[in-house]
């Protein structure tokens, strides 16, 4: 299956990203938002909320690393939980 569908995100007319979509896996619109899940050629599955990229399979480790480190370092025992980060 060949698709001519692309996800494109532009930031203030100075920066943009474009992702080749192989297949639309899910698309639903409610009164509050539009949610899409697509299979992309270079980033795997991609979650979009109102047309904006939220996360992809390729970069999910960045998201999980960020929320894990901030939670660990906010814990009461900072000396024991953050020694690996210094």
Structure description:
The chain is of the alpha+beta class and 86 residues long. It has a single domain (6-75), classed as Spermidine synthase, tetramerisation domain (Spermidine Synthase, Chain: A, domain 2, Roll), CATH 2.30.140.10. It contains two helices and five strands, in the order βββββαα. Strands 1-2-3-4-5 form a five-stranded antiparallel beta sheet, with no helix packed on it. The chain is elongated, with a radius of gyration of 17 Å. The relative contact order is 0.13. The mean pLDDT is 84.
Q: What is the level-2 CATH architecture name? A: Roll
User: Biggest β-sheet: count, sense, barrel?
Assistant: 5 strands, antiparallel
Helix proportion range = 10-25%
Q: Name the structural class.
A: alpha+beta
Question: Largest sheet, order of strands side by side?
Answer: 1-2-3-4-5
Molecular shape: elongated
Find the count of extended strands (DSSP E, 2+ residues).
5
Taking Cα atoms only, what radius of gyration do you get, to the nearest Å? Answer: 17 Å
Q: Give the N-to-C terminal Cα separation.
A: 48 Å
Return residue spans where pLDDT drops below 50 for at least 5 consecutive residues. none
- Write out the CATH superfamily name: Spermidine synthase, tetramerisation domain
Q: Estimate nothing, just give the exact number of structural domains.
A: 1
Report mean pLDDT, rounded to a whole number: 84
What's the helix count? Answer: 2
Query: Any idea of the CATH class?
Result: Mainly Beta
The ordered string of helix (H) and strand (E) elements is EEEEEHH
The percent range for strand residues is: over 45%
Q: Tell me the CATH topology.
A: Spermidine Synthase, Chain: A, domain 2
